[in-house]
Amino acid sequence: MIETLLMIALFFLVLSILAAVYRLVKGPSIPDRVQALDNIGVNLIAGIAIISIFMRTSAFFSVMLLLGILSFIGTIAFARFLERGVVIESERNK
Amino acid sequence: MNNIVILPIIIPMILGLIMVIFRRRIMLHRVLSILSMTGTGGAAAYLIYQVKHEGIQTLQLGGWEAPFGVSMVVDMLSALLLITTSIVALFCVIYAFKSIGREREEHYFYPLFLFLITGVNGSFITGDVFNLFVCFEVMLISSYALITLGGKSIQLRESIKYVLVNIIASFLFLIAIAYLYAVTGTLNMAHLSERVAEVGQGGLMTAVAIIFLFVFSLKAGLFLFFWLPGSYSAPPTAVAAVFAALLTKVGIYAIYRFFTLVFYHEPQVTHLIIGIMAAVTMVLGAMGAIAYKDIKKILTYNVVVGVGFILAGLASFTDAGMTGSIYYLMHDMVIKALIFIIGGVIIAIAGTSNLDDMSGLIQTHPYLGWMFFITALSISGIPPLSGFIGKVYITEGTFTSGYYWLGAIGLITSLMVLFSVMKIFMNSFWGETILSEEMEKGTTRGVMFPIVALVMLTIGLGLGAELLHDYVEIAVEGLMNPSLYIEAVLGGNAQ
Amino acid sequence: MESLMSILIGVFFAIGTYLILTKSLLRIILGTSIISHGVHLLIITMGGVKAGGPPLLGLGSTSFTDALPQALILTAIVINFATTAIFLVLSYRSYKVLGTDDTAQMRGNEDE
Amino acid sequence: MSLSVTSEIVAGVLILIGSIFSFLSAIGLIRLPDVYTRSHAASKSSTIGVLFTLVGTLVFFVIHEGVFSIRLLLVIFFVFLTAPVSAHLICRSAYRSDVPLAKSSVKDELKEVLVGENREEGRQ
Amino acid sequence: MKKPNDIILRGVTKVAVVIIFTFAINLFFAGHHNPGGGFIGGLAFAAALTLMFLSYDVDSVRANFPVDFKVLTAVGVLIAVLTGMGGVFFDLPFLTQAFDYFHLPIFGKTELATAVLFDIGVALAVIGTAMVIIMTISEDR
Amino acid sequence: MSLLHIMILIPFIFAIFVPLLYKLFNSRIHTGWFVLIIPVVIFIYLLRFIPGISSGEAAYQSLNWIPSFGINFDAYVDGLGLVFGLLITGIGALVILYSIYYLSKEKEALHNFYVYLLMFMGAMLGLVFSDNILVLYVFWELTSISSFLLIAYWYQREKSRYGAQKSMLITIFGGLAMLSGFIMLSMMTDTYSIREMFTQVDTITGHSLFIPAMILVLIGAFTKSAQFPFSIWLPDAMEAPTPISAYLHSATMVKAGIYLVARFTPVFGGTSEWFWLVSGIGLITLLYGSVNAVRQTDLKGLLAYSTISQLGLIMSLLGIGSAALYFGYGDEADLYAAAITAAIFHMINHSTFKGALFMVVGIVDHETGTRDIRRLGGLMTIMPITFTVAVIGAFSMAGLPPFNGFLSKEMFFASVVDVSNLTEFNMDTFGILFPIIAWVASVFTFIYSMILVFKTFRGKYKPERLEKKAHEAPIGMLISPIILASLVVIFFFFPNMIGDYLLKPSVAAVLPAIAENSIMDMYITPWHGWNTELFMTIGVIALGTLMYISLRKWAGIYRMYPQSITLNAIYNSALDKAQSWSASLTDKYMTGYIRDYIAYLFGFFILFVGGTLIVTNSISFDASNNAPVNFYEIALMVAMIVAAFTVLLAKSRLTAIISLGVLGYLVSMFFVIFRAPDLALTQLVVETVTTALFLLCFYHLPRFKEQVHKEKKGVPFKPLNLIISIGVGVVVTLFALSANGTRLFEPIAGFYEDSYKLAGAKNIVNAILVDFRGIDTMLEIFVLCIAALSVYTLVKLGLSRREK
Fold first, then answer.
1. pTM of the model as a whole
2. Helices (H), strands (E): how many in chain E?
3. Residue F682 pLDDT
4. Are B435 and B364 in contact (CB under 8 A)?
5. CATH, residue C68
6. Per the domain annotation, does F765 fall within a domain?
7. Is residue C14 part of a domain?
8. Which of B38, F19, F324, F539 stands 20 to 30 A from F792 (CA)?
C-alpha cells in the first residue's frame, strides 16, 4: 500500500529534480542556476526521506539534516559571490 | 608482531608535527630532522638485523590479523630501501641547512621534508594495497608542497604539470584497486598473492596487473616519464635531490612488490612489457640526457635512464637480474641525490645552469670537481664504484633470460649517460677559468660535508659490495619466493 | 544496476578526460572533480551494491552491504579533497604569478 | 495492526501531497518568466512540499518503527528557517548582479531606492 | 562599495550556527554506532565556521576563535598518532584500540573507547585543515 | 693481502700521497723523483719472478673482494702477464724519469699528473695480473678513465678535451662490449676465472653464445688497441704531454688490447672466426695505419698512425698464431706458434723503439717549440744524440738490421708467408692477400720511418720558423731514450736472452697445449739464410727508398681522398647528429604543454589497458548477479549525465561550478541509494567545502564576465581529445563490466560484521576507519594536515614577488 504511494511520490520528486536540472542547464542567469541547485537540494531531502522509508532505516536522517545545512551554506556562498565577487570578507577590505 | 616496523613512519611523522607546532624554532627543526633521520636509520638497521636472523618482520596494526587489518611488512628489500632512504635523506637535509634559505625554513620546509620521508617509508613498509595508495598520497602531497615551496614562477608552472599528472595517476590507482577488489575481494598483498595463485593469473587478472603497472610506471617514470624532467628541475636543489633519489624509487619498489609477489605468474607477458618499457625509457632518457646543454635537464634525464635500468633487472626475472637491481637501486638512490646536490652547487656558483656559460671551475673548486668526477663515473657504473655490481648483474640477468637487446640497450645507454655527465664535467670544470672567486654567486662553504659523505658512500658501496651481499641475497630470495612473504603475513590463517 | 553504473562511470570518465584535455586550468580542475566522482562510484560499484542494509548494526538489518569499499571511498574522498584544494590554490597562484590560466602558455621553454 | 496500517496510509498521503507540491514548484521553475518569480515557486512551494514529506516520514517512523528522530525534527526546523533566507539572498544577488526582470514586469521599486543610494555614494 | 545590509542573514546564521554546532558534536559522538564520526563531525563544525565567515568576516570570527588552526591541525594528528602509540606501551601492536564498558555515576553504563580519542584527533585535524585553507585563501589579497 | 697484491695496488695507495708530497716538497724537489721509486720497486720485484716463470711455474695469489659473487682479486703471474708487467713498470720508470725533465716543476700541476700516471700504471698492472675477468674489467675501465684524465691533462685546451672525450667514449664503449662478452663467457662456464675457462674450452666452443661473446670481447680489445675502425681516438690522444704519449702508446694502454687477445686465444682460438677476425682486422689496421702515417705533418701524429699500424701487425700475428690451437700440437702447430712468438717479441720491440721515438719527438718539441715536419729540419748537427736515438728507433721500426725491429719483422714475414699456404680456415681463397698486404704496409712503414728521421734532422735548418732556438736537450731528458735505444740494439744481438726467459713462458701461456706437449723450437737468429722473408725485406727497402725519394710526386694522391668520409668525420658527425637528433626528438615530445602530456598518459592508458583486455580476450559481460534497478535511479543517472555535460559545455565558469555542485549532491544521493550513509555525509560536506573553495579562488581568477566574453568565441572542439576521452570512458566501462562479471572470490568484508563484538562499534564503516584500518585514517588526516600547510605556504611564501 504505502509502497505504491511512495513510488508515485518518488516519481513526482524525480520529475521535479529533472525540472530543476533543466533549469540548471537552461539558465539563463546564474541566480537561476543557484536556485536550481537549492531546489535540487531540498528535493533530495525529500527523496532521501522516502528512500529511508523504503529501507526502513533511520540511518539517513543525519544525511538529510546535513544536506539541509549544506545546501543553505552553498546557496549563501553563491549568493555572496554573485553579489560582491568575494565569498568571505576580511576586515581590511571594508 | 614487532612494533619497530612502524617506527620509520612514526618517527618522522611525530617529529614533523612537533616542528609544525613550534614553527619559529629553526634550530629545533634542524636538530629534530637529523634526529628523525638517524632514528629511522637506526630502526631500519635494527630491522635488517631482525630480518636477517628471524625472517620477515610483520606488524598487524591494531592487532587485527591479516587480511582484515592492515599489515605492515618489512622484508629485506624494504629494510634495505628504508636504510638507504634514511641515509640519503639525512645528507640531503644537511645540505638543505645551508642552501634552502631562511624563508623556506620558516615555511615548514623541514616538516614537509619529514612528511615526504614518512610517505616514502610508508610505501616501503605497507603490505596492503589501499594503504599503499594512502602512503603514496602522503608522499605526493608533501612533494606538491615541496615542489612549490617558494612559489617562483618556474616552480608554479612545472608543479601544475606534476600535480595534474599525479592526480590522474592516483585516480587510476584507485580504479585499479576497485577492479582488483571486485575480482579478488581482498586488499592485503599476501592474501592477494595467494588468491591469484589459487585461480591462476587469467586474462582479466593480467589486465589488472597492467593497470597497476601503468600507475606505478607513472610514479616511477618508467616509460611514462614525460612529467619528470620539468618537475625535477623546478624545485630548490635540496628538494630536487631528494625527489630524484627517492620518489621514483617508490614507484619502482611498488612495481617490484607487485610483480614479484602478486602478478608473477605470467612473466612472458607482464615482465616482457616491463622490459620493453624499460628499454624505451632508457633510450629516450639517454637521448634526452645527451641532447641538452643545461645541467638540470641532463641530470633529470639521467634519473629517467636509471629507472629503466633498474627495471630491466626485474624484467629479466632471474636471480642475477634481481640481485643487480637491488644493488643498483641502492646505488641509484645515493648517486642521484649526490649528483643533484653537486649540480645544484655548480649552478649556485656559476649562477646559471647553461653549460656554455661556465668553464674552468676546477681551478677554484678542485675538490668539488673531483667529487663530481667520481660521481659521474659512478652514475655510469664505472667500476669499482657502486653502480658496477648492479650493472654487471642486471646485464647478466637480461642475458640469462634471453633479453639480449635489453642488456645491450642498458650498456649502450650507460655510455650515453657517461657522455652526458662528462659533458658537464668537461664544460663546467675544465677549460679556461672565466670566473674569479669574487664573481661567484654561490659558495661551497658548508655544503661539502654531505657531498663528501655521499661520495664516500658510493665508493664504499662499490668496494664493500661484499658486505651487502648477504642482505641482498636474502632480499632476492624473498622476491623470488613469494611464499616466504605470504607465510610471514598470513601465518597460519591462510584461507 | 552494476552494469548501468559502469556505463555511467564511463561517461564520467569520458567527460572528465575531455575537460582535462582542454587548456583552461579551471576546466582541468573541474575535469578531475568529475573523474573523482566516477572513481568513487566505481569503487562502490565494484564492491557490489544494494546487497543488504546499511552497514550499521542494531538497526534491524541482518545482512549488510560491503562496508570495506565505503571506508575506502571515505578515505579517497578526503584525500581527493586535499589534493583538489592544493590544485585550486596552485592554479590561482599560478594565474597571479604567471598572468595566465591557459596551460598552452605555460610551456616554459622560453625563459631558459 | 490497524494503527500501523492507518499510519502508513497517513504517512503515504502526506508524502504524496508533499511530492505533488514539489512537482508544482518544479513546473513553476520551468514555466515562470524570470528569476525573481521562479524564486517564489522554488522556495515557497518546494519548502511546503519537503515539509509535508518530512512530516509524513516522521509519522511513519514514529508509529511504524517506534523511532522518534530528533534529527528529522531538526531538518524540518532548519529547512523552515533557511529556505526563505536562501531565496532572499538569491534574489538579492540576482538583482545586484543585474539580472534583468521579465519583460512583463510592471514595476521595479527597488531601482529607485538604489539609484538614490548610488547617487549619495557618488557624492561622498 | 557600500556594505550591503546583512541583517536577515546574520540573524538566521546565529540560530543556524548553534544548530550546526550541536549537530556536529552529535555527529561526532554518534560516530561509533551511527553514521558520523570524527571526520564528518569535524567537517560539519568547519561548515558552521564557514557559515560564520560567510555572514560576518574573517577578522571578527578570528577574534572569537583566537586559535592558530595550523597548530590545531598538527595537534589533532599528533593526538591520533599518540593514541595509536598507546598500545605500544602495553606491548600491543601499534594502533590497537581498547574499549570497555564502565558504570559511571551519572551516565550509567558507558562505553569508553580509545577510538574516541582517536576520533577527537581526527576531528581537530579536519577542523584545522578546513579553516587553514579557507582563511588562508580569503586573507590573500 | 699478499706482497703481489701490494705491489699491484701500491701505485693507487701512493697516488693518494702524491698531492701531499707535492705540497710539501715540490718547491725543492721535483715530485717525479718520489714517484719514480714506485715503478722501479715493482720492476725489481717482478724481475724476481723470471726464474720461476721461465721454468714453467706461475704465481697465484687470491685476495677476497666480493667472494660471494666469485669476484676476487686473483692475481696470477704467468709468462704473458710478466712480459706486460715488466714493460709497464720498466717503460713507466723511464717515462717518469723523462717527465721529471720534461715537465717543469714550477709551471705544471704535477700533483695531478703523477696521480693520473700512477693510477694508470696501477690499473695496467692490475689488468695484466688479474685472473678474474670482472676484476680485469675493473682495471680495464680504470685505464680508460685514467688515460682520459692524462690526455686531458692540459684541460684548458679545447683539443685536449676533444681527444680525451673521444678516447674515453671509444675505449669505454669497447669496455662495455667486452663486459657483455665476459658476462656471456661466465654464463657459459659459470666461473669468472680465466684459468678455469681454459679447462672448459669445449663447452664454450660448442655454445650458441660463442660467436657473440667472441665478437664482443674482440671489440673491447680492438678499441683499446686502436684497431680499425676504432683507431681514430689514438691520433687525437696525442694532445697529451709527450711522456704520456710515450707511455700510453708505446708500452701500455694500446697493448692492453693485445694482452686481451693473447689472453683469450686459448679460449676462442683455433676457430676460423677468431682467426679471420683477429688477423684480418690486424692486417687492415696495419695497412691503414702505415698508409695514413705517411701523410702526417705532425711528428706525433705520424707516430700515432705508426702505432696503429704496428698494433695491427701484432694483432694479425696473434690471429695467425691462433691457428696453432687448431692443430693442437705437432709441427704445424709449432709453425704457427712461431707467429705468437713473433707477436710478443715484436710487442716488446715496439715498446722499446716507439718509446724512444716518442721521447725523441718530445725532445724536439720541447727544444724547438714545434712538431710540425714542415717547419723542422737540419737538427742533426744541433742535436746529435737525439738524432742518433731517432735513427736507431726509426730504423728498427722500418725493420732494418741491426735493430730488433728487423728480427720481429722477419718473423712476421715468415708467418704471413706460412699462413698463405694454409689450407684450413678457407685460407685458399684470400690467403694470398696476407703476404701482399703485409709487404705493402711494410713499404709504407719504411717510408714514414724515413720521413721521421730525415725530414726532422736532415735538410735545411730553419730557425726563423721555430719558436725557440734549438739546442741539445739536457742530459736528464736524454737518459731514457738512450736506454731504450740501447735496448733496441741489444735485443738484436741477444734476442734469445728475452726469448728464453720471457717469450717461451708467454707463448706457453697463450698456447698451453704446445707448452705441454712439445718442446718449442724458439731460437731466434738474426741470420737465417736467403729466404723469402729476407727478399721481402730487401724489396721493402728498395721500393721504400724509391718512393721516399719521389714522395712529393705521388703524395698528392692523399688529397684526393674526400675529407667527409674519413672515420674522424664520421665520428664527429655521428656525435653531432646523435646530439641534435636527440634534441629534436626530445623537444618534439617534451613540449612542456600539459595537454600533450595528459594526452600521452590517457593514450597509453587506452593502449595498454584496452590492449591487454582485447589481447587476453577478457572482456566479458555477466549481469546475472546485478542488483535490480529502479526507475528513479535511472532518472537520477540521466540527471547526473546532464549535469556532467553541463559542466563540460558551460560557457561560464560559475555555471560549471554550480553544475558540479548538483553533480556532487546527486552522487551523494547515490551513496544513499547504495546504503552508505557515512559516505553520503562525507560527500556532501566535502562537496560543499570544495565549492566554497572554488568560489574563494574565483576571486583571484580572471573575472567572470570577461571570461564569458572570451569563451564565447567557443571552446574549440578537438576531435583527438574527443577520441581519447571516449576511449578512456569505454575502457573503464568495459573493464568494470568484465570485472563485475568475474567476481572470483568472496570479499573479506564478512569479518567486519562482527565489529560490535570486536571493536565495540555498531557502525561498521566507522569501525573500519578508526580501528580495523586505523592507519588509513591516521594517514588521511595527516594528508589533510600537509595539504593545509601546503596551501598556507603556497599563498604566504611567494619568492616570485622578489624575482621581478
1. 0.92
2. 5, 2
3. 87
4. yes
5. 1.10.287.3510
6. yes
7. yes
8. B38
Query: What cell was used for B101?
Result: 634559505
Question: Nearest CA to CA, how far is E4 from chain C (Å)?
Answer: 27
pLDDT of residue F522: 64
Considering only CB atoms, which residues of chain E are within 8 Å of chain A?
A: 1, 3-4, 9, 16, 19-20, 23, 27, 30, 34-36, 40, 44, 47, 50-51, 53-55, 57-60, 134, 138-139, 141
Give bridge partners of residue B250 from the DSSP assignment: none
Run of H or E including A70 = helix A61-84
> How far apart, in whole angstroms, are the C-alpha atoms of residue E55 and residue E73?
24
Residue A49 touches partner D, C-beta closer than 8 Å: yes
- Write out chain A residues lying below 8 Å of E53, CB-based: 88
Where do we find the cell 700504471? F121
Q: Is residue C21 part of a domain?
A: yes
Residue F235: pLDDT band with limits 50, 70, 90: confident
Tell me the pLDDT tens digit for each residue of F39-76.
899 899 888 888 888 777 778 888 888 888 888 888 88
> F421 and F366 in one domain?
yes
Interface probe, candidates F687, F778, F793, chain E, greatest E C-beta count within 10 A: F778
The count of domains in chain C is: 1
Residues B305, B281 contacting (CB under 8 angstroms) = yes
ipTM over 0.85: yes
- Cell matching residue D29: 521553475
Are residues F176 and B412, on separate chains, in Cβ contact within 8 Å? Answer: yes
Q: Cα distance from F603 to chain E (closest Cα, Å)? A: 35
Average pLDDT score over residue span F696-721? 60
Query: D90, A52: Cβ pair inside 8 Å?
Result: no
User: In terms of domains, do F479 and F599 share one?
Assistant: no
Strand (E) or helix (H) holding B91 = helix B76-99
Q: Is E110 helix (H, G, I), strand (E, B) or coil?
A: strand
Flag whether F560 is in a domain. no
Q: Which of F654, F665, F685 is opposite residue A44, by nearest beta carbon?
A: F665
Range of the structural domain that residue A33 is part of: 2-84
State chain F's mean pLDDT as an integer: 83
Q: What is the pLDDT of residue A94?
A: 41
**Residue A89, domain member (yes or no):** no
CA distance B447 to chain F (A): 23
The interface residues of chain F toward chain E in range 40-79, judged by CB-CB distance below 8 A, are none
Q: Is pLDDT at E2 greater than 50 in this prediction?
A: no
> Distance of CA F234 to CAs B301, D26, D44, D88, F99, Å?
31, 89, 94, 89, 21
Q: Pick D72's closest partner by Cβ from A8, A18, A61.
A: A61
Cis peptide before F402 (omega within 30 of 0): yes
Question: What are the grid coordinates assigned to B69, written together?
Answer: 587489518
Q: Chains touching chain D at 3 or more Cβ pairs under 8 angstroms? A: A, E
Looking at residue B14, its pLDDT comes to 92
What is the rounded (10 degree) CA torsion for F60, F65, F70, F76? -20
pLDDT higher than threshold 70 for residue F154: yes
Record: contact E51-A76, CB cut-off 8 A: yes
A43/D20 CB distance under 8 A: no
Residue F755's nearest CA partner among E94, E32, B130 is: E32
Size of interface C-F (CB pairs under 8 A): 267
The count of other CB atoms within 10 Å of the CB of residue D6 is 11
User: Residue F472 CB: number of other CB atoms within 10 A?
Assistant: 16
Domain of F766, in residue numbers: 758-804
Is C55 domain-assigned? no
Q: Which residue has the higher pLDDT, C54 or F151?
A: F151
Asked if A69 is an interface residue toward chain C (Cβ–Cβ < 8 A), one would say: no
